[in-house]
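Justification of resources, computational component.

The compute hours requested in this renewal are based largely on the per-chain cost of generating structure records like the one below. Each record pairs the submitted sequence with a full structure-token output. That output is archived, and it is also reused by downstream analysis tasks.
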Amino acid sequence: MALDRSAVIDEVQKLADAPSVYEGLKAKAEVFLEAVDTPQEKSAFRTLIDEIKSDVLTIDQLISFTDSPDGVAVFGEKKASGLTIAAKKAKEQGEDTCICPACQAGKEILANQAAIAS
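The structure output for this chain reads:
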């Protein structure tokens, strides 16, 4: 189901609030949220969309990272293993995007960007 403008703005807020969000993406989300209902809204949204496109991971990228020495260093062995298992299960169920809250919000924003960009 397509999201309306208000729901897309809510997804941007979820993205900004997600504990897993990359700081650069969080900053662009916050700039957009401050620009809502101003003449800068659409340009801030376009900037946010570009950042989302470069930051949101695929499910395969997540699996590769959590299953790597770098992923273990970031999350610890137990959490990295759990994330890998959860990601593989999600992939088996058809998920194509990282399962963290930031990436999932980013996926929804990308899928519904016409609600604001048009």
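The two ends are 18 Å apart (CA to CA). The mean pLDDT is 95.
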